[in-house]
Amino acid sequence: MAFTDSCDVFASFHEDGFNRIIEHVRRQRPSLFNYATADVARNERMLCRKIGVHPVVDLRNNPHVTIADPLPIPGTNYGVNFAVQLADLQIDFHPGKSVALPPELNPPLKEQRLAIKLGVCGGIGCPDKEQLDRLIPPPKVPGRNTEGKDPRGPIVALPTRKLHCFCLEAYVTGGIRIATYGGKPYLEPFLDGFEIVDIQPEGLENSLECYIGVLLRLVVLPGLRILLERAPLNLTQGATDLFPQPTNVTLSATPVSAAVPNNPAIEDDQLKVFIKAEVN
First and final CA of the chain: distance in angstroms? Predict the structure, then answer.
């Protein structure tokens, strides 16, 4: 049976192709994988991992690092320099032969699921003790009412000579589904589990996993949604002698049925998508 017997368009993406694309993007768009304060970005020798970039990045004066605000010190207008780098990213589609999941994520990988292995390096720049001694604030004047006033301005990063670096491994399990919002279909990733490996004490590990999991669910993954009807496939582009222009093809997901039990489908080390096309 042909893949298109139950749909108009069939597309599949092998995990090896995904991982090759990720590596190319990492070298050509390094700022998507490296985040640091301006002081660190100006002196990349402080980064915890050296950034490998394609020569075209520097030829076009593209940034190596996305600039982030310093980590604030509550009650002051100071902050500390830091860096976070995504040092490794590997995707593994079901049946899951490339990424060995930790016991906390209940291996083996479930059907219609994918696994992601992440290598994350980060560091915080701690200022010198002598400098901190000079910045200790004087005592408040008794009786002076400062309620409702905030004399603090923009956050000022405290200088540092180096970062205190660390690297860790994390694992994600999840999948990709079609969800409807406001009557419109979206292709969206979702999260099943997130695990950071071997952080002690256990309470610190659980707290980090909770926070990062919330960040992934509420911020990162929603930003990766794709509105299917805005993914037009213009099959007649460049053939104006045969077809009047514009001739747009609107795409939507093929409904799940006995013939198409999963759409999208994550199986055979591939992401498979079955699409219905309508000519407007």
Answer: 29
